Amino acid sequence: MKLTGAVDPFAQVLFNFGVFVTLLLLTMADVFQRTPFFVSWWASTFPLDAFTLSLYLTHGQTGAPA
Q1: Which residue of 1, 8, 36, 39 is surrounded by the most CB atoms within 10 Å?
Q2: Which of 32, 54, 34, 56 is CA-nearest to residue 42?
Q3: Contact 59, 66 (CB under 8 A)
């Protein structure tokens, strides 16, 4: 989106993959609650942060509701 200025098909594929990864991580929420905190938690929190940013940018470009 930053290169073309619009939501092209490739950006849509990447966004939908982000939705898929986010749903996978949300289904593992109970596992995360039982696991003690380690530095490796960035592997699960980074994708959630990246998806939040992509959701914000996609909404800004398309105006579509979440």
Answers
A1: 1
A2: 32
A3: yes
Coil, strand or helix at 47 = helix
Low-confidence ranges of the chain (pLDDT < 70): 66
pTM to 2 decimal places: 0.76
Distance CA 7, CA 1 (A): 6
pLDDT in tens, 5-16: 788 899 889 999
For 48-63, b/e burial (b = at least 16 CB within 10 A) is: eeebeebeeebeeeee
Say if CB 6 and CB 61 are below 8 A apart: yes
